[in-house]
Amino acid sequence: MVYKRNEITREKEKIMGIRTRLAVLACKTSNAVLRRMGRGGTNLPGKIALKIDKDILKELSRGVKVTVVTGTNGKTTTSRMIEQAFEEAGYKYFANKSGANLLTGIITVFAQHCSLSGKCSYTHALIECDEAAFRKTSEMLPVECLVVNNIFRDQLDRYGEITHTLNAIREGITHVPDATLCLNADCSLTASLADNVPNKVVWFGVDVPIYKETAFELSDAVYCIHCKTEYEYDYRTYSHLGGFRCPKCGYHRQTPQVGVTQVVRTGADSSDIVLNAFGHSHDVHINLPGGYNIYNAAACVAAAEIVGIDEDTAVDALSRFECGFGRAEQFELGKSKARMMLVKNPAGYNQVINQISNDEEECKIAFLLNDRYADGTDISWIWDVDFEALARQSARFTRILVSGVRADDMALRLKYAGFDTGRIEVIRDYENLLEAIGADETPTFIMPTYTAMFDLRGEISKHTDIKAFYE
Amino acid sequence: MELNICHLYPDILNLYGDRGNIITMKRRMEDRGIKVNVEGCSIGETLDANRYDIFFIGGGQDFEQEVLLKDLGTGKAAEIRAAVEDEKTFLAICGGYQMLGQYYKTWDGVQLDFTGAINIHTVGSKERMIGNYMFETLPESSGAVVVGFENHSGKTYLGEGVSPLGKMLKGYGNNGEDQTEGARYKNVFGTYSHGSLLPKNPVLCDFILQTALERKYGQIEPLAPLEDTLELNANEYMKQRLSK
């Protein structure tokens, strides 16, 4: 049979269409089955779809305006903030909510929001993406806005060096020349992503110090990324973030279009700041505590502008959005109000410590350390966290609880930080741990690593009604 | 008694919680009433090795290696070599351990000269050796079973005059081939063990401290035992897990 050229194309499209349909069907079905089994099917369905059609994500995301959030710390919270802005702007959007932030998880969430023919009826997608996974994912997504929060040392057993993470993102950016980059001006590593790329850039940052006192921290970027001369700083906010400049080659912080000009108040539940966005000053109430969330808020306002949401809507969203999964999330556990603060790496942990130290109330503290793959199998990083800052306030802590797979190492770390060993309680069993937390009315700060948070939530859900993570 | 510790390149060689070793040495001396002073010495600063009893060098990233090699060439390498021969105590981990050797050859054949303080050399490989691991130190290095975490792509080989720190029980060690881990030369202790190494390996920690004290004060009484329940719990937990 002899085909004419357009017939060949049509035939080809038909076959491709069938393949896409098959992939979407397999994805949706396996997802439904997994859910019925009570399991959060976030990666497997996407994996199956990818096997059937390697271009599946390209097909499913066609015509959708995608905002991607990546970087070491704050991806989830920033995504939730931007999501609130999308919501209030009335955008027809969907988001990957459950930390399904690898390629396969992202495919699953796109398939869920497409018809069986692979047509997506949403105009916008908000995607949190793992730093290393962005390299590949970016090949297939029509990215309108790429937010990079920061780069810190994180799970080096998996990513290798910090510069590897940075280079993965850098390579990913070459796949999306039309995307507007929304970058942290205060992070010398992140800021270097703007070098030699055709992309438009919107900078966000914090123009002033955030805390009076901060945890002792190692800097992840002492030397200039271009010429390896030691940076000088006009001020620092935390870790290597702040007003950096290289005295030799002149590489320096860019003045952000969205900058925090004043930190009015940092409280236990929220912060108030003055934000200058594109020349307009806004008083902003952020419905989450912590200096790192001030950065996330600035990122949100910058990203909102890029996707066409006005500043006022974005600023309002910040005062209304709800805490993300394990990100200062609140629970009533027995008699105690508890806040769960996910900890993953020294920079994030030190921020949580800054936040706890900023307060003066009596409280219980619980440290949960696991060393499974998602936590990072190397727990050496706990020695880079400034637990000494908490030990100096140990009189304030009515109970010091330790749990998780590596509870012994955690207890040892606390001892060398200066906590009284007689007061460190190692409670391995989560049921007993929850009982200890709920036994009295003193509030509790729980600091779990990733899988410890899942385990603990599982235990909590036996007693109270909390949503499973895939809902 | 008093010990002076020099932390070499604390702002660069600090990748895997290695400063836990400094915290631990300091604490275990102070708990016995022995004074400890810790000073850092980094890029551009002159190293006067005579002032110190213990030198600590941690692991770092490749990114900074260039800066480091240049700085070592300005006189620090010679100071380090002399201090090693002078039987000063060194604890060097991972990148710091490699740095005490003769050279590092990348997997594609480029040779970088290191300090040459001890007769070892390292060859890069494409695969990383990563994971929890365990080794038994030789009797002349305390005989303790050490648990830790290794993360390196370089394979280290010991030359003449250098003995291994220990024999592998689980994991890769120096090169994944000859069952050796770490190096011992005079009072130099080199190892791939992060973890941090010393907190949950208190026997090795005290052995290193005793070595430094005896170099300075001659034969002394063994260090008084400390309350080490948490230390030994953490050691035992990993020992059990890795023995399965």
TrEMBL record, chain B:
Q: Which molecular function terms from Gene Ontology are attached?
A: carbon-nitrogen ligase activity on lipid II; glutaminase activity
Query: Which UniProt keywords are listed?
Result: Cell shape, Cell wall biogenesis/degradation, Glutamine amidotransferase, Hydrolase, Ligase, Peptidoglycan synthesis
Q: Which reaction does it catalyse?
A: L-glutamine + H2O = L-glutamate + NH4(+); beta-D-GlcNAc-(1->4)-Mur2Ac(oyl-L-Ala-gamma-D-Glu-L-Lys-D-Ala-D-Ala)-di-trans,octa-cis-undecaprenyl diphosphate + L-glutamine + ATP + H2O = beta-D-GlcNAc-(1->4)-Mur2Ac(oyl-L-Ala-D-isoglutaminyl-L-Lys-D-Ala-D-Ala)-di-trans,octa-cis-undecaprenyl diphosphate + L-glutamate + ADP + phosphate + H(+)
Active site annotated at which positions?
94 (nucleophile), 194
Task: State the Pfam families in the record.
Answer: GATase_3 (PF07685)
Binding residues annotated for substrate, in chain numbering: 128
Q: In which pathway does it act?
A: Cell wall biogenesis; peptidoglycan biosynthesis
Which ranges carry the CobB/CobQ-like glutamine amidotransferase domain? 4-201
Instruction: List the EC numbers from the record.
Output: 6.3.5.13, 3.5.1.2
InterPro entries in the record: Class_I_gatase-like, CobQ_GATase1, GATase_3, Lipid_II_synth_GatD
Biological process (GO) annotations held by this record are:
cell wall organization; cobalamin biosynthetic process; peptidoglycan biosynthetic process; regulation of cell shape
Q: Read off the PROSITE patterns from this record.
A: GATASE_COBBQ (PS51274)
- HAMAP family recorded for this chain? Lipid_II_synth_GatD (MF_02213)
Function, as annotated, reads: The lipid II isoglutaminyl synthase complex catalyzes the formation of alpha-D-isoglutamine in the cell wall lipid II stem peptide. The GatD subunit catalyzes the hydrolysis of glutamine to glutamate and ammonia. The resulting ammonia molecule is channeled to the active site of MurT.
Q: Which family does it belong to?
A: Belongs to the CobB/CobQ family. GatD subfamily.
Description of how the protein assembles with itself and partners: Forms a heterodimer with MurT.
Name of the protein in question: Lipid II isoglutaminyl synthase (glutamine-hydrolyzing) subunit GatD
Species name: Coprococcus comes
